[in-house]
Queue: 2 jobs
Job 1
Amino acid sequence: MGLNVIAFPFAGGNKYAFDFLKPGLHASDVSLQVLEYPGRGARMNKYLLDDIDKVVEDAYEQLLNKINIDSYIIYGHSMGALVAYLVCQKLMISQNKMPMKLVVSGSSAPSARKVENIWNLPSDSFWEKINEFGGLPNNLLKNHDLKIFFEPILKADFKAIEEYKFCKAEKLNIPIDVLYGTDEDISYEEVLPWKLESSNKVSIRELPGDHFFIYKHTEILNALLVNQCSEKFDISK
């Protein structure tokens, strides 16, 4: 069987969040599978989870049904980066089949996360904060009904990640590729500690753009996901 990429969405995201990657991955004979958190999309009938441990456990159980394959890579953006990292921790502890590597984007290292607590802000203030991340379609910001629909989903996701408390754990034994945007609220000093999270190679790359810079750099992201080896992408400072 070929290479599989299993992706973890950002806060508020669903299984369609990474459709922009499909053409390039499929052209390289790489399969993309996107996990979906409860309370959205095809899992709308499930209760929203606002606790990171429960989110990770749910994602872990989904993943176990997808890794009976020759090789796979795990990718997560923003919230998905944290969930993907914690799922990899569970895989290693339980001695399940590990991915060839972990690719994360739009996220500071687990040990360097900022605590903002925007999840409990009043609605107007909350949406102002969400808009600062960039990437929101105008029809969502202007549509009252859509905002009512998405607000509890986003607030549950933000509560989960904002209340996460880092606990030092055994280092992963797989490579990690880290991407972050020049114009998002993440500094190099905040992504650098990703290097402490693996005994294997950790590469860091900065790309132009805001928090959703990944949508402007499809070719680079696809290249990282297609290549199991990360050597040529290491441009760490």
Note: The longest strand covers residues 71-77.
Job 2
Amino acid sequence: MRKLSPILFSVSLFLAAGATVFAQTALSLADKQQITNNLDSLVQAVNVGDIQKISALISPNNQTLQSDIQERIRGGIGYQLNYSPFDKNVEIIGQDQVKIKAKFAASGVGWNVSGLSTYFVFEKQNNQWLITDTDFYKKLGTDYVFRILKWVLIFGSPIFLLLFVFWFWMLIDCAKREFDDKALWIILLIFLNLSAAILYFFIVKRKNITRKPLEFKLRCSSS
């Protein structure tokens, strides 16, 4: 009987170990349901400031995380969490330990932000999936949210100004230019704003479409 080469033997052990680990850490439907329920419960608890409920969702082995989340809870901000599709946002990082990637939105009086990223590490302890790590608590305070809004204003304001200037430029050009369908283009520019301005630039201005006013010539007959 042939002996397996050291390399083939090592590969076989690696595959066998990997299959064993995967089998031990694969999430069942019940596990997925419990994790999603805990995430939803966490957001609801944060929104209403339910400290007791928050504590029940976090591993008792991480008291620091509990206190950090509790200290950063502020009223007047509503949070929403999006981690769907679940299977594409879950990463198995160890036996009975998974990492969930998510996007969250925050809103208050007169403002809202969305698309912010966060993560949650869950560990199964006594048949309960509890949070052992997350950066969500770092983004609970108004300071973080308004810091994001500040950067949006810093980078967004110049872009908005340039787009407004471009739209106004096209509107003035349309008003001064003599061509067919002028009235229709003015209406489109007023109601469709930037999208109409882009279309006008390529369809009318860039092609330099114009129509000369009618000229009337008088013929004088010589006597």
Note: The domain at 13-140 is CATH 3.10.450.100 (Nuclear Transport Factor 2; Chain: A,).
